[in-house]
Amino acid sequence: MNELRLIDAFLAPFGLSRDARASGPGVLSGPGDDCAVVRPSTGRKLVLKVDELVERVHFDWRWFAPDDVGHKALAAALSDLAAAGARPRWFLCALGVPPGADALRIAGGVARGMAALARRHGCTLVGGNFTRADAWSVSITALGEADRPRGRGGARPGDAIILVGELGKAALGLRLLRTAGHRPGSRVRAAAIRAQLRPQPLVDAGLAAGSLAAAAVDVSDGFLRDLGHVCAASRCGAEVEVDSIPLDPIVRAAGIELALSGGEDYALLLAVRPRNVVRLLLRLRRAGAPAARIGHFATGRGIRLLEGGKLRPLPKRLGWDHFA
Amino acid sequence: MNELRLIDAFLAPFGLSRDARASGPGVLSGPGDDCAVVRPSTGRKLVLKVDELVERVHFDWRWFAPDDVGHKALAAALSDLAAAGARPRWFLCALGVPPGADALRIAGGVARGMAALARRHGCTLVGGNFTRADAWSVSITALGEADRPRGRGGARPGDAIILVGELGKAALGLRLLRTAGHRPGSRVRAAAIRAQLRPQPLVDAGLAAGSLAAAAVDVSDGFLRDLGHVCAASRCGAEVEVDSIPLDPIVRAAGIELALSGGEDYALLLAVRPRNVVRLLLRLRRAGAPAARIGHFATGRGIRLLEGGKLRPLPKRLGWDHFA
What we know:
Chain A has ten helices and 13 strands. Chain A is an alpha+beta fold. Chain A folds into two domains: 3-146, CATH 3.30.1330.10; 160-312, Phosphoribosyl-aminoimidazole Synthetase, Chain A, domain 2. Chain A has a seven-stranded mixed beta sheet with strand order 8-10-7-11-9-12-13, sandwiched between helices. The first copy, chain A, has a four-stranded mixed beta sheet with strand order 3-6-4-5. In chain A, a hairpin with a 6-residue loop joins strand 1 (27-29) and strand 2 (36-38). The radius of gyration of chain A is 20 Å and the shape is globular. Chains A and B meet through helix 1, strand 2, strand 3, helix 2 and strand 4 of A and strand 2, strand 3, helix 2, strand 4 and strand 5 of B. Strand 2 (36-38) of chain A pairs antiparallel with strand 3 of chain B.
């Protein structure tokens, strides 16, 4: 193997080669050159996100196929663009590759999963880097565009908390994989495993929400932890009605902590002024995105969980900390 | 240690905190938010590069201080922008961090080296990511802007090959570190070690060259390998007069292969139409960048080395291949 064969194996699923210059809309120079060159849209803001998946930290080859890893790495970055309400445009991928007999096959598989998701969202690979490493790693830098990107910091006391997507399934899927491996045993279990291996970034929902959402975050580290990020950035608190979180029965049976702090859901949390809630829910329904009002932002600090009208203590673990 | 303390330690040398939103020119939302948001300049092209350094592959803690690693990771990415003739604007950094007692100290040091270089070139940190890993890794995505970015593909037979910067010193520095460690013993040896640990990206020279250079590449993988990239992309060959490559006496004494294929020089190779050569050399001199005409692009394919008027065989190894 050499570096050029590795590049070829990676580019092929994207329909690209080292000679190809332009690889998509707005791309003046693509992965074949030293640098990528793109033409940003006039007057729009550029939204940037870097995210990384590492073997044995974020994924395990016993359960993940190479194309699952490629899909999930890009999905994680696109999910942040979705929260910002940005339209995905371009991305770069830095791969850490342990040399070995199966490196070409794995790199090709990673690219295949990534290319399929990229195509679905109109996001073009424009550059990358390969380096030797002891473990596989996939680092994605995604670039999107938006007129008025949302951040974490725009929530106000009184705003509704709108949850788009589902909580707890991905964490349950990981638990199932760890205990039973790849034998789902039922349709609902298979769906949970799929949520872990193949999360779908809610790009269309993020775009549909537009300026009706004042702040947003995607749930990657865990619902309570990510909601806490919005509270901290917006200098307010939050009250969540646990009963109004829509839960798959299989998640409810396995324990609501999976939904509250499991992580990797790639759901969206939106802060929405009361007058905009109905319009927003309508728009999201039209975009085919399940959404629910699950509480509101409040004065003060911290998150309060309410269950049957009573305060429920927060779980000890709010979410995922790489280094805790 | 937890992730937030790690983020704080990393942001401090940049004069940033998790609360800070805007961190520099054109930055609407910086490292404190989920995504970075920047405002690209109207009408200019965006030039993108991702590059990664990995512990034990690209650097060794026996010789590299943390701030050397931070400096070099950013320098490598800025060097590609320099070749393109782009002005550095923003960058993102994804760090792979082995948990341990010294993780905070190392992350802070990496940031310190990076921040100093970033400041010098007006390039602003806008986002990042931390992940647990078995080995340290630093992945940089650099964004620059240019009216007419140069690529590898614009050279024509007859164009002069202009070398900006020096060849062979960094490779010699690595050899010295491997054999004698951090005891340089003389000023010239110290300079070689410095070229290895602290390469300077030729950003000003790249900007000064402007449209007088038709194609460019930075020498990171090795002179012959990177020149070969330009030849391949431009569908031409090249003739290099070995005697006209300016060599430090210590590099010449250690063997010219260090200059021809050693790599990590972060010099620039420019393809320049004959009528533009004098003007370009003048401009580079004014920019304080040493430059020399070392040959020309030619019809046909492949690189020919001439020494004392005679053909000299190519060395077996043309440069650095991570996977060869």
